[in-house]
Amino acid sequence: MKRMALAVLAVFVAWSVMNFIIHGVILSSSYAATASLWRSMGEMNISVTYLSVLIAAGTFTLIYSLLVAKKGIATGLTYGLLFGVGTGVSMGFGSYAVMPIPLHMAFTWFLGSVIEAAVGGVIVGWIIRE
């Protein structure tokens, strides 16, 4: 149980840092250029954002812990990459299909999701291993 809690916390921190880099640094000018699509900073609820990342990190870790038989860093990385491609396609290109966002934003969302999940997979594979 300690390893599970540590893994959830570590994935949460890693994903929060990477989200800041992706959305707050890399895509900041793209968000400014498409400001009419987003809530203003004053309307955003950052606590809901962090809660959603925490729930996602918990779910990601639970799936690995409960459903993956052969645990380790390599398996965690594979799990993370597959999870990232699956979520990244819908996050990036699924959003692009229905929202007037630039293609580079969709691609960055996709690639960011893959990288975040891969890092998360390495973390859970390292902390929760045989």
List the helices and strands and how they pair.
Layout: H1 2-26, H2 28-33, H3 46-67, H4 73-98, H5 103-127
Task: Describe, in plain words, how this protein is organized in 3D.
The protein is mainly alpha-helical and 130 residues long. The protein has one domain (2-33, 43-127). Helices cover 80% and strands 0% of the residues. The chain contains five helices and no strands. The protein has helices spanning 2-26, 28-33, 46-67, 73-98, 103-127. Helix 1 (2-26) packs antiparallel against helix 5 (103-127) and helix 3 crosses helix 5.
Tag the structure with descriptive keywords.
130 residues, single chain, mainly alpha, 5 helices
Quick structural summary:
The protein has one domain. The protein has five helices and no strands.
Nearest-angstrom radius of gyration?
16 Å
Largest sheet data: none
Order of helices and strands: HHHHH
DSSP strand content: under 5%
Please tally the helical runs, counting DSSP H or I stretches of 4 or more residues: 5
Average the pLDDT over all residues and give the rounded result.
96
Structural class: mainly alpha
Query: What is the total tally of β strands?
Result: 0
